[in-house]
Amino acid sequence: DFSSVHSKDLLPAENGEKVTRLFLRELLNILLAYINKSQNRSSKVLDFHYPHQLKEGREGFSLELPDQPENLEQLLVDCRDTLKYGVKTGHPRFFNQLSTGLDIIGLAGEWLTSTANTNMFTYEVAPVFILMEEVILKKMQTFIGWSEEEGDGIFSPGGTMSNLYSVLLARYHFFPHVKTEGMHALPRLALFTSAHSHYSIKKSAVTLGIGSENVFLVKCDERGKMIPAELEYSIQTAKGKGLFPFYVNATAGTTVYGAFDPISDIADICENHGLWLHVDGAWGGGLLLSERHRAKLRGIERASSVTWNPHKMMCVPLQCSAILVRKKGLLQKCNQLSAEYLFQMDKHYDTSYDTGDKTIQCGRHVDVFKLWLMWKAKGLEGFKAQIDHCLENAEYLHCKLQNRKDFQLVFQSKPEHSNVCFWYLPSYVRSMPPGTERNRELHLAYSGVRATTVLRRLKGSVHVSKVAPKIKAKMMESGATMVGYQPLGDKVNFFRCVFSNPATQKADVDFLVDEIARLGSN
Ligand code: ABU
After folding, report:
1. Best mutation site among 94, 200, 255 for ligand 1, i.e. most ligand atoms within 8 A of its Cβ?
2. Is the overall model pTM greater than 0.90, yes or no?
3. Ligand 1 contact via 306 beta carbon (within 6 Å)
4. Which of 316, 338, 365 is the endpoint of a domain?
5. Do both 324 and 182 map to the same domain?
6. What is the tens place of the pLDDT at every residue in 100-131?
7. Cα-based angle 148, 150, 156 (whole degrees, multiple of 5)
8. How far apart, in whole angstroms, are the C-alpha atoms of residue 344 and residue 354?
9. N or C: which end of the chain has fewer CB within 10 A?
10. What are the angstrom distances between the C-alpha of 211 and each of 207, 218, 276?
11. pLDDT tens digit sequence for 171-185
12. Which positions does the record annotate as the modified residue N6-(pyridoxal phosphate)lysine (predicted)?
């Protein structure tokens, strides 16, 4: 019972060791119970509450901040509640995000990292972690295919930030004086990325003062891959308008379709025009570790920079994202400001290990240790096996949906990554023969256009409008599974199932399909 104990009684309080141990053990019990529940298929993925319900503190869970210290018993209750109302992203039936799963070694790594509570800016305060980062980044560069003499990088707070680094570096590479003179000294820059690429490329242009209108969204084929001829056309168009093309992003594993842009063909175009080629492999980079799948990234070794998020396909606990740069020294030159209080040049060790000045941050979380520890625990073989397993699950779902009359795949071809995109078919759509008329009805049912007409025709069926959002709402309220949906281009809302959790088995895939069908037909 911790009801008469407060945080002031914990270490560094005198004689605080025993109560500290007891408190942390109790917390550990809470976390272990949560971990067990996360892996237990009979427990829910989430216990959904609307924001006002959580804010009201209806079930005794208060978000309000007190003036007086609360006792440790209350803090343990708060910890339990925080987990209770959260989403179990490690549950084998959580398919909602690209980053899922709960790796126990990764978790141990994160605990150690928090306990060490150090900062990644200098060797002085993070000697072991800095060296681990060097080892891991080198390993990743080897899988990209850069030579021994090439390669640099840094862990950053997520794929969007890693992509931001790529645009920043490309701009600096062509216009080093931007660092001192700013954007006014530059021509109007243009960058190119596919219509299916992640919005972070456009956000980078916004953040860096390049402007969203100067981002050219290159057309994709039906499968979501950038069409090289369209890239060439976009570059010519930009030049014709007097813009200065400097950067192309090729995506290895698009967020929704999981498509891989043809990197080699794009690299040829970049070479011809002298452009920086970035590969956003935030999602697909992990496939480099798999013998079965790495050919999908053919040509990546020709990139000037690569984003790779081990917190996605490699199941490393959030966050763990790397920006890898082919040209050594560029990160440092681009970002270095040599703050004298931190990066003293007269230190008694090799100050190139004070990697913090390569970054646009000052303080930097240790993201590398959990990955390093997981690599030790699994070896390359372990990562390969888990990645192959996730893609097998996607193939299984794809194959299963091909044989179901109540589902329609968004594209028929086999998944390239672990994304499977599909519609659930309302019964009246299902009964129609495939073709234009059926597609039109599907569109109406999902988009909610003419909902009342459809409603009259269907006499109150749930499928009258916006099918996916309605199924998703019911799914979250029942809490047994979670999968995302979105529209894309001319495609009305469809489900996107992604697999990155090695704990997911075929029976979980069966469960998801049956659950969507159950919720859709009720
Ligand atoms: N940064 C992309 C993450 C998107 C997703 O998890 O669906």
Report:
1. 255
2. yes
3. no
4. 365
5. yes
6. 999 999 999 999 999 999 999 999 999 999 99
7. 115
8. 9
9. N
10. 8, 17, 18
11. 999 999 999 999 998
12. 312
